[in-house]
Design brief:
With 98 residues, the chain is of the alpha+beta class. The chain contains two helices and five strands. It starts with a strand and ends with a strand.
Length: 98
């Protein structure tokens, strides 16, 4: 199996400060690097208004990260992101499909 390119976007709790958000992001990206994947520099978009209220929140901290990894690594990353209560929403897109 070969690595694929992915884009991860997640929305974190708006109450997290910048340091906590960076720490949270690094923690998840470690999942990718520990399995031999490559991660580009995360793009922190900051606090933005959500399109609709999620769990009583109207804003969230947006983070976008491009990375390369095996499909199983992306599945695991998605699984652990969804377990964290500080993460409101996640979306992982495969960029090199087709």
């Amino acid at each position: 199996m070969s690595a694929h390119k992915y884009e991860l976007m997640f929305i974190a709790d708006p109450d997290l400060d910048e340091r906590a958000l960076k720490k949270l992001t690094e923690q998840y990206l470690e999942t990718v690097t520990k399995e031999g994947g490559a991660v580009e520099e995360p793009d922190f978009w900051g606090r933005r208004k959500l399109a609709y209220e999620i769990d009583g929140k109207t804003e969230g901290n947006y983070v976008v990260v491009n990375y390369s990894a095996e499909p199983a690594v992306s599945a695991e990353l998605d699984r652990i992101l969804n377990l964290n209560e500080s993460v409101i929403r996640t979306k992982i897109l495969r960029k090199d499909a087709k």
